[in-house]
Amino acid sequence: MLVFSAQPVPGNDAFGYDGAVVNYLHGGRYCNPSMALVFPITGTEVYSMYPPVYQGVLLIWMKLCGTSAISAMALHVALFAACGCLTLAVIRSLFPAAAGYGLVAWLFFGFTFDDRPEALAYVFGLMVLWLVGRQLAHPARGFGHAAALVLALFLGLYTSVIVGAYFFGAGFLACLAACGWRRNWFWLAPFAAAAGLFILITLWIALCEPRWWAGFMESARQQSVLNSGFHAPTVDGLIKLARTVPVFLLGLAALPLVWARRQEILAGECPWLALAAGILVMGWLLLGASVTFLSPNYVNYAIYTQIILAAGLLALVQRHFPARERSLRRCLVASIVLVSIRALGMTTWGAACAWHNSYPRTQVVLQTELEPFAASDQPVLISSAYLYRAVELGVKNPLHSDWYFDHAHWTNNVQINALVRLQPAKLVLTQFDYYRAFLAPLAQLRQRPDLVAFRVRDLTGVPVPDATPWLHRIVQHLSWAPVIVEMDWKTKF
């Protein structure tokens, strides 16, 4: 899809993580000016809103492959390939071969986009599970193996704290379960060492580099982890969970059967079962938090481990519940269909959108629309997917369309007030951003002709799912075609 239709289109926050490297490679400082309104340290001094390992990898990649959106997407395809190899390596090296795991590989269709640092964190996390699996299967591992595990754990945490913690917990619980039959507590030592190293370095940064730490806290105050309290699961959140990681629901449904025959199942050493159990428990801790405390999008963090969990369920059922194997395989086929909805949308609807509005054609449009602002200080609100091109064209005052107001102090009119205060000359938006975030405030501004007059030019040649409220919950963000909003402000502030 990347080669033939330049999909997936980078998400609404992709440039938030890539922009500092892009700015640096175009002769600027290591900061992201498009976000300076909300993140002054990250936007004008030093990018420190996220752990630094991903930016280091991105810097090397973009030095070799350029700073375009396609370059960023290609990096994530490479990371996806690495994750796929590691996931299958865990299954092939640890799980009984007789179960046959061709079916579970189809679950990879559930992962159709990734444009955040978490993509690299998955690589380190899956490396953790591979190292843990080898440790459980072949206990006579030396210092080198333990050091590699510590390094993978630490790099995962310093790429994405939440993803790193998720894989840290899954690996730790697997080792803890395995200690039940071998009493080898040395298996837990790498986890203690990695946690200690992470805490020490974080404390050093907080004490010795206060601006870096202030930049991180600047970001943390905007995130739902700190701004949202506990809440009852919503229908949308539960639907997202079911369509993204349905195998965890199958694992939960299997628990009564496992409990009824627990003595038989736990009678012998079973490294693959310990790993599957660690993934199931840690997965449900994450999934429970995602629907009650964290953002519902965090269910995506379990998507690779559900493939390993599916292999564990197949092995378990084949060995202890053979009469139920056919039912499980049918459930897995249903899960594959469920997680593949976006993949089907990309290969059909998305391909049609790309046929009418290709990536190269969009770059020409962006050049026409944005070149005048290379010589003007007028602010322009630009979607993440187009900011790569804006920096290449030297736009002086590009503003990230997600970060032109303070999300931590959200009020009913915060978007309109921010637009009136900034008075952007133009909005250059993806279909996703236009319908998700700007349709309502622009409708309200249309009622104030004394403030502004504007004209909307939607350049799509194919209707997009983002335009239909019920449909964009199923598939969205498939088109490169921009929506251009030209604004003529009547009163200058």
Summarize the entry for a quick read.
With 493 residues, this protein is mainly alpha-helical.
Question: Layout of helices and strands, plus pairs?
Answer:
Layout (H helix, E strand, L loop, with lengths): L1 H4 L8 H12 L14 H5 L8 H13 L3 H26 L7 H4 L12 H20 L5 H15 L3 H22 L6 H20 L1 H11 L3 H4 L7 H10 L1 H15 L1 H4 L5 H22 L12 H16 L4 H15 L1 H16 L2 H12 L9 E3 L1 H9 L5 E3 L13 H9 L3 E4 L1 H15 L6 E7 L24 E7 L4
Parallel strand pairs: 1-2, 1-3
Antiparallel strand pairs: 3-5, 4-5
What does this structure look like?
The chain has 493 residues and is mainly alpha-helical. It folds into 2 domains: 48-339, no CATH class; 357-489, no CATH class. It has 23 helices and 5 strands. It has helices at 2-5, 14-25, 40-44, 53-65, 69-94, 102-105, 118-137, 143-157, 161-182, 189-208, 210-220, 224-227, 235-244, 246-260, 262-265, 271-292, 305-320, 325-339, 341-356, 359-370, 384-392, 414-422, 431-445; strands at 380-382, 398-400, 426-429, 452-458, 483-489. The chain has a 5-stranded mixed beta sheet. The protein starts with a helix and ends with a strand.
Largest sheet: 5 strands, mixed
Structural class: mainly alpha
**What fraction of the residues are assigned to beta strands by DSSP?**
under 5%
Helix content: 55-70%
Radius of gyration, taken over Cα atoms and rounded to an integer in Å: 24 Å
Distance between the termini: 46 Å
Estimate the global geometry from the Cα principal axes: globular
Q: Which stretches are poorly predicted, pLDDT < 50 over at least 5 residues? A: none
Number of strands: 5
The structural domain count equals 2
Total number of helical segments? 23
Averaged pLDDT: 90
Which series of helices and strands comes N to C? HHHHHHHHHHHHHHHHHHHHEHEHEHEE
Strand order of the largest sheet: 2-1-3-5-4
